[in-house]
């Protein structure tokens, strides 16, 4: 009976640790070991758990929590981290308004570019291209935005967000052309009837 109580308490404590971003970050740092312990943050199973937690935080737009969840794994695996970690962390940093704007801009770009450069899988290339396209859109770089959206679609032709943005851009482009033609017609009519 005592063993069952201990196991229940251990499970409860594990749940609290995994759901509290601060405790999870402390736990991950402790796993990294400062006392000569082996680096458990390199364990693929643990990394997948961290990715699931980060994706959930990003989906809920908990940018700070996602950062706190991903950063310890990236720091423990500087040269061997799955590109998705850098991509998700870059996305979280880009949207985390608790950070200073210039730092947010430079850090997110650095992380997104690193993640995309290391991406081998089509899924990661599409994700990285879309995230970088969004970064460029937010910073007023329309040509890069479009180029990266197209790159995203080459990696994943069914990427819904990239498809939607391309369609919107095409519609806007079509609207601009039509309004230019209307302006020319109105100008011509004004000159014809002497109202110019």
* Helix/strand order: HHHHHHHHH
Q: SS-based structural class? A: mainly alpha
Q: Whole-number radius of gyration?
A: 24 Å
Low-confidence stretches: 174-182
Most strands sheet = none
Whole-Å distance between the termini?
95 Å
Number of strands: 0
Helical residues, percent = over 70%
Report the average pLDDT across residues: 81
**Outline, from the CA principal axes?**
elongated
**Beta-strand residue percentage:** under 5%
Total helical elements: 9
Task: Explain the overall architecture.
The chain is mostly helical. Helices cover 79% and strands 0% of the residues. The chain has helices at 2-19, 21-32, 44-59, 63-76, 83-95, 101-118, 122-138, 142-155, 160-192. Helix 5 runs antiparallel to helix 6 (101-118), helix 5 (83-95) packs parallel to helix 7 (122-138) and helix 8 (142-155) crosses helix 9 (160-192). The radius of gyration is 24 Å and the shape is elongated. The relative contact order is 0.06. The model is unreliable at 174-182 (pLDDT under 50).
Chart the SSEs and their pairings.
Blueprint: H1 2-19, H2 21-32, H3 44-59, H4 63-76, H5 83-95, H6 101-118, H7 122-138, H8 142-155, H9 160-192
Helix pairs in contact: 1-2, 2-4, 3-4, 3-5, 4-5, 5-6, 5-7, 6-7, 7-8, 8-9
Task: Summarize this structure as a short list of keywords or feature phrases.
mainly alpha, 0% strand, 196 residues
In short:
This protein has 196 residues and is mostly helical. The protein has helices spanning 2-19, 21-32, 44-59, 63-76, 83-95, 101-118, 122-138, 142-155, 160-192.
